[in-house]
Amino acid sequence: MSLETVLADRRKEILRKWEEVVLDRYEAESVRIFKNQKDPFANPLGHKTSAGLEELYEVVCDESDVEIETPALGQLIKLMAVQNIAPSQALGFVFSLKVIVRKVAGKKEISSREWESLDARVDRAALALFDIYNACREQLHRVRFNDLQKQRNALTSEAVCPSAFMNDE
Fold first, then answer.
1. Is the distance from CB of 72 to CB of 47 less than 8 angstroms?
2. Which of the four, 36, 51, 90, 133, has the lowest number of CB atoms within 10 Å?
3. Is 115 exposed, middle or buried (0-12, 13-18, 19+ CB in 10 A)?
4. Which pLDDT score, from 0 to 100, does residue 1 have?
5. Are residues 35 and 45 in contact, defined by beta-carbon separation less than 8 angstroms?
6. How wide is the angle at C-alpha 38 spanned by C-alphas 35 and 44, nearest 5°?
7. Rounded-to-integer distance, Cα 138 and Cα 90, Å
């Protein structure tokens, strides 16, 4: 049996386990909502997680050099970037796919070449996602910096200082 067959036949199981790895970082009550609420508007995090993982799975399973940034995956990475967690925590889930696939494949005869190919695709995906994550974090910091600049300017530009106002009286 080939690794490609395992990836296709056990897709739902692998995705379910992979989603559990991502959601395990959240509180139990949040995870319950993420898993049970299927409405994308009532549960945007759960929906973006599922959609992003499905697209990433497709990218990793495709042996061609397919573009890594997909719409749902971009949304998932943006969601990770706005959270106050380390990049290793935000993107560590990508590497867990290797472990999950090996457990699901079990004792099936899969060549080392196929495993090496999967590992390389997962690693390439993780590196590409780190670049996307980093760009999102930079954008977030620029927005925050610009907001601080605007607040400072609102306080200092042509505004009468309260103490100066008191001196005028």
1. no
2. 36
3. middle
4. 78
5. no
6. 85
7. 15
10 CB neighbour count, 10 Å cutoff: 16
Residue type, 117: S
CB 60 within 8 A of CB 53: no
Kindly state the tokens that stand for 72: 């749902």
Q: What is the pLDDT of residue 131?
A: 92
Instruction: Tell which residue, 95, 89, 92, has the closest CA to residue 123.
Output: 95
Residue entry with tokens 């899969």: 110
Q: Tokens representing 78?
A: 């943006």
Residue ranges of alpha helices (H) inside 24-160 are 28-36, 44-61, 71-81, 87-91, 93-105, 112-156
Kindly report the number of other CB atoms within 10 A of residue 60's CB atom: 21
Is 57 within 8 Å of 104 (Cβ atoms)?
A: no
Q: Which residues of the chain have pLDDT under 50?
A: none
Spatial contact of 7 and 61, defined as CB atoms under 8 Å apart: yes
In terms of Cβ atoms closer than 10 Å to its own Cβ (0-12, 13-18, 19+), residue 50 is buried
In this structure, what token pair is assigned to residue 123?
């690693």
Task: Note the pTM of the prediction, 2 decimals.
Answer: 0.79
Q: Kindly state the DSSP code that residue 67 receives in the 8-state scheme.
A: -
